[in-house]
Every structure is written in C-alpha cells, then in structure tokens.
Amino acid sequence: MPIIGNIIKGFIDVRDKLSGEKNPVEEQQEVLKKLLTKAKDTAFGKNYRFEEMLKAKRPEVGFSQTVPFHDYNKMNDEWWHLLHEGRKDVTWPGEPDYFALSSGTTGKTSKRIPVTDEMIAAIREAGIQQVYALSNFDLPADFFEKGILMLGSSTDLQQVDGHKEGEISGISASNIPNWFRGYYKPGEEIAEIDDWDQRVQKIAEQAADWDIGALSGIPSWMELMLQKVIDYHGLNNIHEIWPNLQVYTSGGVAFGPYKKSFNALLGKPITVIDTYLASEGFVAFQARPETDAMQLVTDGGIYFEFVPFQPEYINQDGSLVKDAPSITLDQVEKGTDYVLIISTVSGAWRYIIGDTIEFTDVERAEIKITGRTKFFLNTVGSQLSVNKLDDAVQFLEDEFSMKIPEYTLCANRIEDEFYHCWYLGTEDHVDNEKLATSMDNYLKSANKNYKVARSKALEGVKVTTVTPEMFYDWNGRNKKKGGQVKMERVMGEDKFAEWEEFIQQQS
C-alpha cells in the first residue's frame, strides 16, 4: 500500500480545496502595486515616477501610458547593461545572483536575462501550485512516490563577475527545494554534465535503476532521450523500463506537432500537462484535465498586459509599434490573439516576451500559445501564425498517416515569384508534390487570408522532406543541443539560405 503516496495525495487534495476560488483580475492589480512599490527607488522606477503612479486610483493606467514597451535589446541597451558594469538598483533593487542565457529560436548570441531571488521564489511557488493542481487529474496515490525526470539544461552554472549564468531550466533545477531532491532525477551529478549527448548516455545507463512516474522537458529533446533509453536497452517502448510512467509535463513549444511521434515511444497512454516556463519567468500551467489550455500565474511575480495581434501593430522584426494599444486582464476577450507583455520581479518592464496567446476561458485566465511575433508569416499577406502552421502539419500527419515532429518554412522568392517553402522532418516517405498540394489545399480552405494571398502574390507551395535529425543537428551547430533550444518555425530569407546550404552539406 502506498502509505507515503496516500499522505501526499491527501494533503494535495485538502490544500487544493482550502485554496478557494481565484480572482485573477484582483490578483493582477495587487501584483502591479507590489512591483511598483518594490522598484520605486531603483533607477528605472525613479525615471518613470513609480511613486506617483502608486498614488493614483488606477496605477495600471499611468503605468501603460508612461513606461514604453521593451524588447530584450531595448531593455539591455538602456538598462541591464549597467548590471554588468557593477551598478545596483537598476531596474530592481540590489543586483541579480543569476542571469538566464537564452538564444531561444532566433540566433547564436545568448541573451542574458536577470533572475533575482524573488523570481526564483516565484518560479518555485508556481511549481508548487502546479503540484497542488494535480489533484484535479485523478492520479493514483502511488504516483506521488515515483521519480520525476526533469530533462533541462545543465545545472553546472558558470560563475561570471559575482553571479552565475545558465539556462533557466538549469537555474531552476539547481534551486529545487530539499524535500524534492529525493524525487528528482537524473540527480545532481548527471544534471551537471554540460554535453547533451554525454548526459543522455548517462541517463540511459542508469534508467533501469529508476522508477519514473513523470517526465518534464521540451518535447523534441525528450523524444531523443526516450529513444536513446529504448535503443540502449533494446526495448519496444519506454514503459518496458518505466512501467509506472503516467505524466509528461511538456513545455517550451506546442506539444501538438510532437504528439504522434511521442506517443509512438509509449506502451500505454499517459497524461500530458502543458506548462509555460520562459527565461523571464513561470507564466502559466495546465490546471485541469478538461482542457489543454494553461492558467496564467496571476498571483506570482509577473504582471501581464496584452496587445491585440494585428498587422498594423507589429513591425517586420516582430517588435511592437510605439503607440500599439495595450489592455489589462479585465479587458481581454476570448478567441482573440494577443501579444503578451510582462513586467516581473526580475526587473523586466513592459517586456515583449515574443509569444502570442489567446484566451480560451477569460474568467479562469486560461490561455493557449498561438505563436511567436517573429514567426508570423505575412510576407505576402497570408497572415499565418504558428498555431495555424501547426494545424497544417497535423493535417498532413492525419492525411498521410505519417509523423512530422519538426518543420520550418520561409516565404522565399524564386525567380521573382514568392513560394512558401517547407521543410518537413519525417522518417516517412511520401511524395513531396502530393504533400505540397495537400498542404496548399488545406491552408486555402482553413484560412481566408492565405486563400487571398494565393490568388495574388503567393505563387504556391514547395515541400522538401528530411529526417528529423537534420533539425537537431542544425540546432547543435547553431546553438546547443538540449535545454531551452527550440527550432525556428519561420525563417527569413537569409537564414533560410543558410539552412538550405546546411541541408545540402549533410546530404
């Protein structure tokens, strides 16, 4: 009988019932006041007169009217670079102990995003909230006695000028609470291995010693790890070595494109729970099984604003025009795409995180990620966001009974004509012209803007299939395997030319 598991499950059930109903709007108003109060004496707070805002009846109005939008470059060039020069109290009191390195999906150069003690505490608290929410998923008591394999970046953080640097998953894992260490796999020694292939090899070697109940990590790298364990032990599926695996906590990218290939590695169905942990903070997590949408963490260290995702508000590089209108949580509407803006306890202010979201339930503050501002394909008026591209890829998977865990594309000019040039990562062999025709027909029927574009400047669709390993090798060459690294879904023409040259070299 799982005595400890029953105790933990009972505590979680009681704690969830006692927590009561949330009021996300009121929580957000309180978060903004706390942020402004804490930062009012920083250089940033003095420059934008936070103290005066706090005296107003509605601080959020003065805040949005006074503080401009910031992307990483603006935030870093105007403020955060001072932290690396030894300045304190720049955009948040004191100086951060950590910087999260993030090249994201856009390039080789790492961003260095401050991570304060308050942010680490906020991430930990959001993680605990997610554990409490597991009471909604009707998991058996013995689940709470199993190991949790967290596949993130290395926890061997680099010491630089009095602070530590690494990816946010590595920073978070290096700060896990003591009570969790008994559940945490692969353990501190393996987690510190910087080389991705070596770390996964060690996981495969020790996998038989662990009783894993849950997995956590980005789908693409999780699949590679599971396949390595399966191959190393000569298994048919991962449940042959981890029979009690019941939950996968996905994050970083939409799980949809990976669903088919991921499930092929399993021996039985498991519960998939989406999370939204960015380098800038823990944004949202799936709190109930009735939906795959995620609930914003509205009572933590992040204040949210939303800009309607409309072409007139978006510059070509994915940034926002200066006077783009923003709204607060009490003003959002269901089913509308918004650019997500955050202000945080790490001293990011009106920060464009780069993602677009839509609300599926306004009252619960539940969202889905719909894409990236930089990956909005609108070169010839087609207005395709990443979620629409994902839908098209999943249509092909169903239409041709194939698995396509990775893809990228570009609105590419060929002999003065624009084509949407797709590269699909798959092991299946289907005629490229058939795929192109089917993709084109689906997008014309599913998206009116695409259909209009096809009648004008967009000449057609071209499809090339390559193995999924090409995408992982590309990431390995340009950035680094594992961790927070994600594939560019939409490329500009220059990057796409590099990609095609890379593919030719590998062929």
Automatic annotation (TrEMBL):
Sequence ranges assigned to domain GH3 C-terminal in this UniProt record: 388-492
One Pfam family recorded for the sequence: GH3_C
TM segment ranges: none
Domain of life, source organism: Bacteria
Chain ranges of the GH3 middle domain: 297-362
UniProt-recorded name of the protein: GH3 auxin-responsive promoter family protein
Organism: Euzebyella saccharophila
Organism ancestry: Bacteria, Pseudomonadati, Bacteroidota, Flavobacteriia, Flavobacteriales
